[in-house]
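FAQ
Q: What does a multi-component entry look like?
A: The components come first, one per line:
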Amino acid sequence: MARIAKPILLSFLVLAAADAAATTCSCANVPLLGTMQLATPADGQWFVAGTYEFHDASELVSGSSTVPDATGRDRTSEALVLELGRGFGEKFSLSAMLATVRHDRTVGGLNDNATGLGDAIVMFKYSPLAISLYSRNALSLGIGAQLPLGKDDAANDGVVLAEDLQPSTGAYAGMLWVYAARALNESSSARLYANATYTNNGENDRDYRFGHAATVSLGASYQTQTPWGFNVELLYRNADRDQRAGSTIPNTGGEWLDLVPSVQYHVNDAVALRLSGKIPVARDLNDELQFTTRYSVRLTLSWVPGN
Amino acid sequence: MRTTTGSVLLLAMLALAGCGGGGGGSGDGSGGTSGWLIPQSQVVDAGPGQDGIPSIDRPVFAPVQDITFLGDAELVVGVKVGGESFAFPHQILNWHEVVNHTVGTDDYVLSYCPLTGSALAWDVDDGRLDPDFGVSGLLYNSNLILYDRDTGSFWSQMLEQSVRGSRSGEIPGRIQVIETTWATWRAMYPDSQVLTRETGHQRDYFAYPYGSYRWDDNLLFPVTREDNRLHPKRRVIGIRSATASKVYQVDSFGSDTQAINEHFDGNPVVVVGNSDLDFAAIYSRELADGTILDFTAVQAQLPVVMSDSEGNSWDVFGTAVSGPRAGTQLALTESYTAMWFAWAAFFGNAAIHFN
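Then the predicted structure of the entire assembly, as tokens:
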């Protein structure tokens, strides 16, 4: 799988430009509020986005091969993520995200589910470069924290559900974020971009720690002369194994490479709708057996008040 | 438009958050409404969900000589049911944990918990509509909790008891199991049948699903008490009563078979084991007629492992195979092989036998 990661990392290093795409990071099937919009609001401008995501993690994979699952297991997650952003000065902005999450696990007709507030993320962004009349390049850096505001002790019939079924990880995390883009033409309607995140997860009060995770994505976007825009992205994700009390948990962690196509429609200058999906391309799950992503679909409504 | 957009987002957030803010479940097999006989707070959802680890309900067996997928040192769990002997390889049990098997009209369930290294077989031939058991997806002291498909009651494997549901408190009938290596089992019972990998499920049976867990110091799930006198994963055979427990380390019997005649909690028992051959068993020395036997280890006559002063020879399942008491079965004890940490967690203050 390292042969998957290397070209992406190399390409990332040589890219630069700007766009308003998004990346999603799911950790052990827990949406981690990686649904962050990449646009940097202008000074004093607010940015609001709401995202609905449906994630089907019912695919049984051994190492890198899909295997038939005779148990008929159905593992899905839904998340609603609200993001608020505001620009400060020319180069600084702050984003805050809050999610509600529902997890469902159904095996043989028996369903376990959990619903509630998930984690929150606060991200401080610094954008020394932005695409403009004078520059085709954009660069943004971010540092943030994940706050366990949500529910991490959901139970079924008195028995606390497994960590991956909890709406919240129950743990703080530190996050780093880098975004670079380059406009390919003067109108900047065509762009290449790269995006990378790193999440350093803490331990919750049940001594459980989701694996630290890194994502790198490479994408291209094209905005037509109409309200429609298109985007395609390769998303690579690497996650360490989860741990409990310092012991690694088997059948967690791995590497994933997904294709993320999306289409965007600008309702007007202030409001846009974006529909995207995640299609697995390759994965290497530490030569172990895991239920993992079959596909996910995301719909985002973004709003820039005052535009 | 602006106000509407913001309101819709906030309402949607509140709607999803307001669906209960907690967990729930539905379906059959929830175990009824009665309480747990074990601390509910220490029952853990391990993640796969009920039947997420699929039991083997239609096991396919093959003769010993047809088995090519086992190495000599690999462990198997052996039973004798209905006059036949059967072996269940760990490499398959690691992935399924529960096998429902019928021999003639005898139904029994064999379970193996890879996290505690404990294998037990229960006689479930009690006329129920569905005698099968499954993997509940729950653990207590890191140990398998089974559920029965007839009533949905939960059963703690190492406690050998239903711990929740309409059958709460029931204790299943025991069937003696012998855990040993494939080489030893093959030498003991060359005519036995062996569970094959035709399980109906596609798994990489050559792979061990828990990484370095068998050897390292780490536990994957919390336990109620820890005891560091032995390495947590040391294989022990333990015996317990209502008031006492004692363990013998499987790798401490030595290369010659040992038969240890002693009393446990006031009852005469014999502990027989061999480290090189990798087996151990504990039986009562008191027969139904009140006779108390003293045993001597027998070498190199597998499956015979001990003899007594009356001239009887006894196999590893505690059956007299020759002598005046041929056909007699020694009474079973509440004993089985497990990892030390698990035995210590379930049965605190266990005495440890040191050679």
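Q: Is there any commentary attached?
A: Sometimes. For this entry: Chain B has four helices and 26 strands.
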